[in-house]
């Protein structure tokens, strides 16, 4: 960005932030669990070739991701795919949040997500800063993959 205007949060992520902000304590954890349970499985092309996914070592649990940019649409859009084990509900929940909020969205919206999104998600009272750092690392990789694919177009 060349101006100093703050980045605008995409509607999907803002809605998720608002949902968490309306809850307290254990209800936030329950919502995070719902995002974990809602994370779709990997398509076969990635499930059978996990080496195609990028690891996110900053996460406390093993999580992997890959982004596909569809350049054929009038506005290029991105598809997000995550692999996180069911026994890691927090990490899986964060992946579910990014999937729900960004999958299928225009790449311009994804690239505009503020880097401090994890701090804007009001869950610091129920998850550790280390977990939030993992969410930030997932977002950074998503944005980098999108940017790389847009640069290659």
Using brief descriptors, characterize the structure shown.
single chain; 153 residues; mainly alpha; Sufe protein. Chain: A; three-stranded antiparallel beta sheet; 7 helices; 3 strands; 10% strand
Structural overview:
It is a single chain. 50% of the residues lie in helices and 10% in strands. It is globular. β1 (54-55) and β2 form a beta hairpin. It has helices at residues 11-21, 25-38, 44-47, 89-102, 107-111, 117-120, 129-152, and strands spanning 54-55, 64-70, 77-83. The two termini are 20 Å apart. It is mainly alpha-helical and 153 residues long. It has one domain: Sufe protein. Chain: A, CATH 3.90.1010. It contains 7 helices and 3 strands.
Concise summary:
With about 150 residues, the chain is mainly alpha-helical. It is about 50% helix and about 10% strand.
Structural class: mainly alpha
CATH topology: Sufe protein. Chain: A
Q: What topology, given as strand order, has the largest sheet?
A: 1-2-3
Rounded to an integer in angstroms, the radius of gyration calculated over CA atoms is 15 Å
Percentage beta strand? 5-15%
- Share of helix, binned: 40-55%
For the termini, the CA-CA separation is: 20 Å
């Amino acid at each position: 960005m060349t101006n100093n205007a703050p980045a605008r949060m995409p509607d999907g992520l803002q809605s998720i932030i608002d949902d968490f902000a309306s809850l307290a304590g254990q209800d936030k954890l329950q919502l995070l669990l719902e995002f974990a349970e809602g994370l779709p499985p990997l398509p076969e092309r990635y499930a059978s070739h996990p080496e195609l996914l990028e690891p996110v070592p900053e996460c406390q649990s093993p999580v992997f991701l890959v982004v596909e940019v569809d350049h054929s649409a009038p506005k290029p859009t991105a598809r997000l795919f995550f692999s996180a084990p069911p026994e890691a509900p927090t990490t899986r929940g964060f992946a579910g949040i990014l999937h729900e909020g960004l999958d299928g969205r225009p790449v311009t919206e994804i690239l505009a997500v503020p880097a401090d999104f994890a701090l804007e998600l009001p869950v610091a009272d129920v998850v550790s800063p280390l977990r939030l750092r993992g969410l930030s690392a997932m977002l950074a990789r998503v944005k980098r993959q999108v940017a790389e694919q847009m640069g290659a177009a």
